[in-house]
Structures are given as C-alpha cells and as structure tokens.
C-alpha cells in the first residue's frame, strides 16, 4: 500500500479513489472529503472494472469501494486490486448500505482493509480513511463484534476466509507475539493490549507490526480471522 501520514511522511495528502455507481453518492463523498487538508480525491469510478483500471493508473492510497455496481462488482474489484501480484496496492475501504454477513465476510476474504455502512457519520468516514491509509484495518464497532461472534461459534473456525497467512508461520512468532495475536483476535486495541501485558503502546505497535509481517497479513482485521481459522483462539475461548 502507498503509505502516507507518518509512514512516508505527512508532506502530501491521502489520495482517495471513489468507486460507486451513483453519481450523487460520489459527489457527496467528494464534498465531505475535499474539505479535509490531508485528503485528496484523485478520481471517480462508476463500476468495478473502471475502479481497477483507475487504481493502476492513479495509484491512490485508499479506494472507497461500493459493493453493488453494474458489471464487475466491488468485491471482485477488491480481489483484483489487492491481489498478491499487485505490489504497493492501496487499502480498500468497503462502503455499503447493506448490513449483510455475506458482504462482510466476502469483503474480508477479498482483501478489504475496512468495512463501513453508509449510514455512518461524515466524521467516521474521514477517520476510517485515515486509519486504513496508515496501514491499519478497520471495521465499524458493531461489525467487529459480528466478526468475532461469528468465528467464536463452534465449527466456524474452518471457513477458510483469509487470503494470506500460513499456519506454519505461527512457529516463527515469539511467545510475546503469540500473546499479542490472541489479544488482537479478542478485539483488543493497542492501548488495551499495553495494559494487559504491562507494555508501552509503542512496544505493542512494534509487536503488532511484527506479527502481521511474519504471518503475511495486511492488517489486524485479517489477523482476527486468521487467529480463529488456525485455532489460535478457540471457539468460545
């Protein structure tokens, strides 16, 4: 992902591509985002195919992606944008009016870094873009609870949702990193992990980064799914 705001420096704004088949929706998002000094809308796409092509041409940091679009939908577009053979791809933030489990888990499987409902506030959208641009994964709080609740059900851990990570890579984690992964899977924030393990937040951030790198995961959203799929956290545990 093209990192910004503290990763490559705050000398340029977060470049955002809008992908939605409704012109009025794209216009509304543009109006909301362009008043922010640290965000720049670099293009608009009305379908998934154009979103993929414009991503490759414009190199945005974040793609704000609708799910239901004519032709190629947002989920397939997300798979292509985040494919392993697409280096330095952007983070994809899925936005939809549909609070449906199948969209949620399909978006995570496709490689999305965040998932928000369109009934959220402008402030939550702006913050979500900043979060995924930093390289962190994000779900609306109610959706985070849904992910954890779904994977915590008996028999749910074998669904094969994540697109990255290997069970063998778990052996490369230090005992401390294994503890951090467990706490991530339980939905703990960096601040909560720091308290639980009596560490500084900067140290926790370093551990989280190492866990993601060793497991080949994009963000902590994938880490939650990975941990349940591979038995790091047991259903009901």
User: Could you tell me the radius of gyration in angstroms?
Assistant: 17 Å
Give the count of structural domains. 2
Strand content: 5-15%
Q: Assign an overall shape.
A: globular
CATH topology of the largest domain: Rossmann fold
Per DSSP, the total helix count is 10
| End-to-end CA span | 34 Å
CATH architecture of the largest domain: 3-Layer(aba) Sandwich
CATH superfamily of the largest domain: Response regulator
Major sheet strand order: 2-1-3-4-5-6
What are the key terms here?
237 residues; alpha/beta; Rossmann fold; Arc Repressor Mutant, subunit A; 2 domains; disordered N terminus; DNA-binding response regulator; transcription regulation
Description:
By secondary structure, the protein is an alpha/beta fold. The protein folds into two domains: 14-139, Rossmann fold (3-Layer(aba) Sandwich); 159-229, Winged helix-like DNA-binding domain superfamily/Winged helix DNA-binding domain (Arc Repressor Mutant, subunit A, Orthogonal Bundle), CATH 1.10.10.10. 46% of the residues lie in helices and 13% in strands. The chain contains ten helices and six strands. The chain has helices spanning 23-34, 48-58, 74-81, 101-110, 122-133, 141-152, 175-185, 190-197, 201-215, 220-229; strands spanning 14-19, 39-45, 62-66, 91-96, 114-117, 138-139. The protein has a six-stranded parallel sheet, with helices on both faces. Strand 4, helix 4 (101-110) and strand 5 form a beta-alpha-beta unit. Helix 8 crosses helix 9 (201-215). The model is unreliable at 1-9 and 157-162 (pLDDT under 50).
């Amino acid at each position: 992902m093209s990192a910004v705001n503290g990763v490559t420096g705050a000398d340029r704004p977060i470049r955002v591509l809008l992908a939605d088949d409704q012109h009025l929706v794209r216009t509304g998002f543009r109006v909301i985002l362009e008043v922010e000094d640290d965000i720049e809308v670099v293009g608009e796409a009305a379908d998934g195919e154009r979103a993929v092509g414009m991503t490759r041409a414009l190199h945005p940091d974040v793609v704000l992606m609708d799910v239901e679009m004519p032709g190629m939908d947002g989920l397939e577009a997300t798979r292509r944008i985040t494919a392993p053979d697409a280096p330095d791809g952007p983070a994809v933030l899925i936005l939809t009016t549909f609070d449906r489990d199948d969209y949620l888990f399909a978006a995570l499987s496709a490689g999305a870094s965040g998932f928000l409902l369109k009934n959220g506030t402008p402030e939550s959208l702006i913050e979500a873009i900043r979060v995924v641009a930093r390289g962190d994964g994000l779900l609306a709080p109610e959706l985070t609870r849904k992910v954890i609740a779904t994977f915590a059900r008996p028999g749910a851990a074998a669904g094969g949702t994540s697109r990255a990570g290997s069970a063998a890579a778990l052996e490369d984690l230090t005992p401390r990193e294994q503890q951090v992964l467990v706490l991530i899977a339980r939905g703990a924030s960096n601040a909560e992990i720091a308290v639980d393990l009596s560490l500084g937040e900067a140290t926790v951030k370093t551990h989280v980064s190492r866990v993601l790198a060793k497991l080949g995961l994009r963000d902590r959203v994938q880490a939650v799914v990975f941990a349940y799929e591979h038995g790091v956290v047991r259903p009901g545990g």
